[in-house]
Amino acid sequence: MAASPLRARRQLAVGLLRTIHRQRLSTLSFASDAHKDDGTNPSFIHPTSVVHPNAIIGQGVSVGPFCTVGSSVVLGNDCKLHPGSHVCGNTKLGDKCILMSGAVVGDNIPGKITIGCNNVIGHHAVVGIKCQDMKYKEGNECFLQVGDNNEIREHVSIHRSSKPSDITVIGDNNLIMGSSHIAHDCKVGSNNIFANNTLLAGHVLVEDHAHTAGAIVVHQFCNIGSFCFIGGGSVVSQDVPKYTMVAGDRAELRGLNLEGLRRSGFSATEIRSLRAAYRKIFMPTNASLGGLEDRLADVECHEQLSLVPAVLSLVQSIQESLKEDRRGICKFRSWSFS
User: Which residue among 95, 133, 185, 208 is the active-site one?
Assistant: First the structure.
């Protein structure tokens, strides 16, 4: 007789577990069916995830366990949310985006986040949250726009703009390696490679095809030119001209990024012309050639070098950095004429 109550409790527990399991399956089936259009590519939403009914879910979306999807979120077709990833706020993900475990995209603050197609956001990366600018005012709209085909690796942080009139922008085909940081109002172009622990302060402009080595710091409002290379451990406090290589604390010009230019398809003629221009600008053979601005003007009017678009682009990049509202270019070692 003593075993009868125990047997009854066991039967009750088994019955409850079966009921919960059936309810979960029913919820999963409902969640999957609720967002498919024609049934050809249904979405999968794990029953332990919390997906707001107002969220817009595309076809073929997979939402793993313990994820959250907010009320204003739009997930494009074939997106995949790995376990424990979260999308919130006014956030739109394009088709075929992947969020690895622990990734967080968006924040419940005014503004909007737009992320293009085929982006991978790594484990525990945080994309599109409030900036760390002390001038930010609570309630202001702030924005982030990310292009297509970017790989954003683990523990990366990318912040929204600091004011409604600006926007943080990431272009296409960038590789942003682990633990890097892109602060508010930065503008990053396309086809860049940021090695681990690349840290960009606010309002930094990075053009296209730039490459940073690990553990570098870029001061706010600096410009990083196209096809440049920043050596590991550098502290960049002024602009880096196009096609150049810098290194050190504080970073100094160390010549042209010759290997990067070759890999990017620059012809031998273009590289020879850039080397000749670089020597005229930064390695003058006598003092009669005047100051930096005089040497830039001389290259710009040179009979042969002025016919090479890459040379003119280098000259323009340096001239832009010398304007009053800019930070100037990284230091270069002056030559002695004695």
Answer: 185
Walk along the chain (338 residues) and give the pLDDT tens digit of each residue: 445 666 766 666 666 556 544 544 444 443 444 444 455 688 999 999 999 999 999 999 999 999 999 999 999 999 999 999 999 999 999 999 999 999 999 999 999 999 999 999 999 999 999 999 999 999 999 999 999 999 999 999 999 999 999 999 999 999 999 999 999 999 999 999 999 999 999 999 999 999 999 999 999 999 999 999 999 999 999 999 999 999 999 999 999 999 999 999 999 999 999 999 999 999 988 777 788 999 999 999 999 999 999 999 999 999 999 999 999 999 987 655 44
Query: What gap in Å lies between CA 254 and CA 271, rounded to an integer?
Result: 16
202 is catalytic: yes
Its pTM stands at: 0.87
185 classed as catalytic: yes
Confirm whether 38 is a catalytic residue.
Answer: no
State the chain's maximal CA–CA distance in angstroms. 112
Q: Pick the catalytic residue: 64, 202, 225, 260?
A: 202
311 sits in which H/E element: helix 309-321
Catalytic residue among 35, 46, 82, 184: 184
Closest Cα partner for 149 from 180, 125, 171, 169? 171
